[in-house]
């Protein structure tokens, strides 16, 4: 990717994060960088194109986190580290979750991709659950779709935890990531076997500064 294109994306990300999408136009981005809007339009014809490019950066970051989700020595630690890595990715691009509904309404390409991605994530999640069941760390389901519904709860938390932070505390910080990643991680505790509970208690993740 060219230097100008990189600079546009970095500047747009900073503006979206600090001001919210509603207040940021192509002209705002161009003026902040110090280039003409025509120069910016050469790389991105619409603001939607910038949002899409940033969205796919998020997807790439989340994919990398999931790829390292299960650690042989302590599978639960791997899962918890993955949760935090994913939340840190969204912290870097926090405008996306804060303007989540707006983006999904306005960007058809992102919405279609995201809907397909959620189905893929559910399959990956259920596969992870099967691994943890095989290792004796999570109990078998007690009723149909129990773990599908657990995924839905995780998904709701993942999509809207940041809005909750802003409503309650005014802004998102790394301390928020510590707090809410712990909230998400604790959600799995009722499903753990005794062996899983002991392993859970042995996991100690350092707080983010």
UniProtKB/TrEMBL annotation:
A molecular function (GO) term: DNA binding
Oxidoreductase as a keyword of this entry, yes or no, is no
List the Pfam families.
TetR, TetR_N
Q: Does the keyword Protein biosynthesis apply?
A: no
Q: Domain HTH tetR-type: where?
A: 2-62
Entry keywords, A to Z: DNA-binding
* InterPro entries for this protein: Homeodomain-like_sf, HTH-type_Tx_Regulator, HTH_TetR, TetR
DNA-binding residue intervals? 25-44
Supply the name of the protein. Answer: TetR/AcrR family transcriptional regulator
The species this protein was found in: Hyunsoonleella aquatilis
């Amino acid at each position: 990717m060219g230097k100008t294109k990189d600079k546009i994306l970095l500047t747009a990300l900073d503006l979206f994060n600090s001001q919210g999408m509603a207040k940021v136009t192509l002209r705002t981005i161009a003026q902040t960088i110090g280039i003409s809007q025509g120069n910016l339009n050469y790389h991105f014809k619409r603001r939607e194109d910038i949002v899409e490019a940033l969205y796919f950066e998020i997807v790439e970051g989340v994919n990398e986190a999931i790829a390292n989700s299960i650690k042989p020595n302590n599978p639960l630690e791997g899962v918890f580290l993955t949760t935090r890595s994913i939340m840190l990715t969204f912290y870097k691009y926090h405008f996306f979750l804060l303007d989540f509904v707006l983006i999904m309404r306005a960007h058809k390409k992102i919405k279609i991709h995201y809907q397909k991605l959620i189905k893929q994530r559910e399959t990956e999640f259920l596969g992870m659950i099967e691994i943890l069941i095989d290792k004796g760390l999570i109990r078998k389901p007690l009723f149909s779709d129990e773990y599908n519904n657990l995924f839905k709860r995780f998904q709701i938390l993942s999509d809207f935890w940041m809005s909750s932070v802003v409503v309650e505390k005014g802004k998102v910080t790394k301390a928020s990531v510590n707090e809410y990643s712990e909230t998400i991680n604790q959600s799995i505790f009722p499903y753990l076997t005794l062996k899983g509970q002991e392993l859970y208690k042995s996991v100690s993740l350092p707080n983010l500064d």
